[in-house]
Design goal:
Chain A is about 85% helix and about 0% strand. By secondary structure, chain A is an all-alpha fold. The longest helix of chain A has about 35 residues. In chain B, about 60% of the residues are buried. With about 300 residues, chain B is mainly α.
């Protein structure tokens, strides 16, 4: 009987889980793409293949998101929760969008990464993607009764601050160097975008926390 | 039957106005479509009226002895009061309009049962207070169950939605049992109807108002209630219904809207936020005085108008 009662909720739940999984795939593809890029410091054919794969994963997450939005507008949840979930998904969708944007910028603008920034970028990448993982975990925790969200937000927040520090460090290095000014600008933009991943992740995590707090009686 | 038209009209406007307190939040949460909500509300209003509507009828019929003409004038005066005050966007309570008109009849006949009237007035003041008290109890009580439930956020959302429908049905039952007296008590007092027929006629006329004219008000009030948040909306509907039902047992028809306002105020007290505007509280205060006074004045006007004779 309960299954029948929760049919639409289950549908939304399954789609959100599917969405989280698709973002994880995009995240994994992004990691592989960036690792390939960082190995040589410029675009390569294998990098371009991975960029295309990441784009596909991002498009797939967009498709799932559209399905969720349609289902929500078919009145699957009360307006209050529906609004909150839509806002969360909108914020979380910034993450795969950032992946896609970063990779296509590297490809289109032929950004060359100097050897000296390699380690910093690797560190920034790890920190940003770890923040994403905590956020996706927090979205999953919406389907449990536990109170893990606050802890996950705390961790994501810490990583974001760490990411900001790395971002600043990279900026200093870029503008202290005697590289071509155009390259400096391209690298600055790339650094910003990499840092934005953790920012978006924390925003989404905060939204999850808000949803949970709002519904605590 | 013709004599009952004033009462039926009063019941119709009561149903059209008060259904919003019953199912407004459930309809706005998309838990239930308007037509299903209206049907459920109608069934439970009639049930409440038939099963427990007799208590209020006994109280109102005892306020002042009425003959058929006075009974008709009383119900028409109350109906005109409710309609005109609604058109002027002034706060109005059907119970208070009916009592005001009965008091007018009592004053005219110099036969007013003051002890009964005092009981009724005390209950009016007590209605929002009961709403506050019930929401102060219901909110933490349901909250404990809510917090300890093994269901996730999405499942709880569905449970709250189902709760809103159940609370709506109970609220409709409480409204029917409490407010049916407003509609047909005067006709019982005039010896025109027996209590069972009075509850049946009253219940069906309220149901008619719900089915034919409550949609707009339901959507407006429902949106305001849901704006609180669905859990609070459930507490408000349930607390309002409990408050009205208590007064059914006491045998005094009260305003379901004022019970709901009290319940919303209770939520505000618990949360430490202002959930009700001062203007709304002032409007209740105004309704306590203005509605019975207007009902009384309309009755007197109608009485004198019906006794005017053409002298060539």
């Amino acid at each position: 009987m309960f299954r029948l009662l929760f049919k639409k909720q289950k549908e939304v739940e399954n789609l959100i889980k599917e969405y989280v999984h698709s973002v994880e795939i995009a995240q994994d593809m992004f990691l592989q793409s960036m690792e390939t890029y960082l190995q040589v410091g410029k675009c390569s054919s294998s990098f371009e293949v991975l960029v295309a794969e990441t784009h596909k994963a991002e498009s797939r997450s967009d498709d799932i998101l559209e399905k969720i939005v349609t289902l929500l507008f078919e009145k699957a949840l009360v307006p209050d929760l529906r609004g909150d979930i839509l806002k969360l998904l909108e914020t979380a969708d910034e993450i795969p969008d950032q992946f896609d944007r970063i990779l296509s910028n590297i490809c289109n603008q032929k950004v060359v990464l100097p050897e000296s920034l390699n380690l910093d970028f690797k560190e920034l990448l790890t920190v940003s993607l770890e923040a994403c993982s905590f956020t996706l975990e927090s979205v999953r925790s919406l389907f449990e009764r536990g109170e893990r969200v606050a802890r996950l937000l705390f961790r994501a927040d810490q990583l974001e601050s760490q990411g900001d520090q790395i971002e600043k460090r990279i900026m200093v290095r870029i503008f202290e160097s005697d590289w071509d000014p155009l390259q400096k600008i391209l690298l600055r933009d790339l650094t910003h975008r990499m840092g934005d991943i953790a920012d978006s992740a924390v925003q989404a995590c905060r939204q999850v926390n808000l949803i949970v707090i709002k519904r605590r009686v | 039957m013709f004599h009952l038209l004033g009462g039926i009209f009063l019941g119709w406007s009561l149903g059209a106005n008060d259904a919003a307190n019953l199912f407004g939040s459930a309809v706005c949460c998309n838990m239930i479509r308007f037509w299903k909500a209206a049907l459920l509300a109608s069934v439970f209003v009639v049930l409440g009226a038939v099963l427990q509507g007799g208590y209020g009828i006994e109280t109102l019929r005892g306020l002042s002895p009425l003959d058929l003409q006075l009974a008709v004038l009383t119900s028409v005066a109350a109906a005109v009061t409710v309609t005109s005050m609604t058109l002027l966007r002034l706060p109005v309570s059907t119970s208070q309009a009916v009592v005001g008109a009965i008091v007018g009849a009592g004053l005219l006949q110099h036969q007013l049962y003051l002890q009964g009237l005092v009981k009724v007035v005390i209950c009016w003041v007590g209605t929002p207070l009961a709403g506050i008290v019930f929401s102060l109890f219901v909110y933490p009580l349901l909250g404990r169950i809510y917090n300890r439930s093994p269901y996730n956020l999405f499942q709880m959302d569905q449970i709250v939605r189902i709760g809103l429908v159940i609370a709506g049905c109970y609220s409709a039952y409480a409204l029917g049992s409490n407010n049916v007296a407003n509609v047909t008590a005067v006709f019982v007092g005039a010896g025109r109807l027996d209590i069972f027929t009075a509850t049946l006629v009253g219940g069906f006329s309220i149901a008619l108002g719900i089915v034919t004219f409550s949609r707009g008000v339901m959507e407006t009030v429902g949106k305001n209630l849901v704006a609180l948040d669905p859990y609070c909306a459930l507490v408000v509907v349930l607390s309002g219904a409990l408050a009205v039902h208590v007064y059914t047992w006491i045998g005094v028809p009260v305003s379901s809207s004022q019970a709901v306002v009290g319940a919303v105020l209770g939520i505000g007290i618990l949360k430490g936020t202002q959930t009700i505007r001062i203007k709304t509280l002032f409007s209740i205060l105004l309704a306590w005085f203005a509605t019975p006074l207007t009902g009384c004045l309309f009755f007197l006007l109608l009485y004198f108008a019906s006794h005017l004779r053409y002298v060539p």
